[in-house]
Write a structure and sequence with these properties.
- The structure is a single chain.
- With about 190 residues, the protein is of the alpha+beta class.
- The chain has two domains: about 25-145, Sandwich (Immunoglobulin-like); about 155-190.
- About 30% of the residues lie in helices and about 35% in strands.
- The strands form three sheets. The chain has a five-stranded antiparallel sheet with strand order 5-7-3-1-12, with no helix packed on it.
- A hairpin with a 5-residue loop joins strand 9 and strand 10 (about 130).
- Helix 1 (about 5-25) packs antiparallel against helix 4.
- The longest helix is centred in the N-terminal third of the chain and has 25 residues, at about 5-25.
- It starts with a helix and ends with a helix.
- The structure holds 2-acetamido-2-deoxy-beta-D-glucopyranose (NAG) (2 copies).
- One 2-acetamido-2-deoxy-beta-D-glucopyranose binds next to strand 3 and strand 7.
- It holds the Pfam family TRAP_beta.
- This is Translocon-associated protein subunit beta.
- Keywords: Membrane, Signal, Transmembrane, Transmembrane helix.
Amino acid sequence: MSGKPFMTFVTLLLVLSFFATYCFAREGAFILVSRRLLSEDLVEGSPFNVTYEVHNAGNSDAQKVVLEDPNFGNQDFMVLNGSVTLTWDVVVAGEKKVTVVTVQPLHAGDFGARPLRLSYRSSKTNVEHESVALASEILFVYTRAVYERLKGSHLLAWSVFFLGTCVIVGVPFVVYILGDQSLRKTKRKTK
Ligand SMILES: *[C@@H]1O[C@H](CO)[C@@H](O)[C@H](O)[C@H]1NC(C)=O
Ligand SMILES: *[C@@H]1O[C@H](CO)[C@@H](O)[C@H](O)[C@H]1NC(C)=O
């Protein structure tokens, strides 16, 4: 009985803190992140490039910017060039940094969909920001044999669907939790 009002209260708090943090963030640095996979189909053993773009859309510099992508762990992938922990001492207001990392999938399967983590300090407000991605896509890696068989057929086209852009806005930790909650609610309803 008391569960429902409590959840409403928590949701309200989350919404309020989201808007408070959002407005606050606009005062200082405000980092947007995108990740793109520059390959339509991922195949075991074939390296592919991942492009990370970090854009400071705020009005002051972002310091100690750290972006971590936990989706290319040692067991399933090998990072051939670059690092999936990206750091910049400073990203000035309006600046865009682009980094390309080359990754090799070690075997077939589906991986990923773990949120990216971003942290930085806003130089004007001196506020530390920590965020996770709103969403991250599943990475589907074909075995070479299956890929060779499917190649040229329209069946491969669907996989492109999963290789979209992953966007992180400045304060989505709260958004992420809210999204997760509403997902659970939807699930419960469909039962
Ligand atoms: C990845 O990008 C580099 C240049 O940044 C290029 O030399 C290389 O061929 C690319 N690799 C793949 C697999 O697309
Ligand atoms: C490897 O990464 C460095 C920067 O991290 C870049 O300058 C270089 O072009 C990359 N090499 C390839 C082959 O992609």
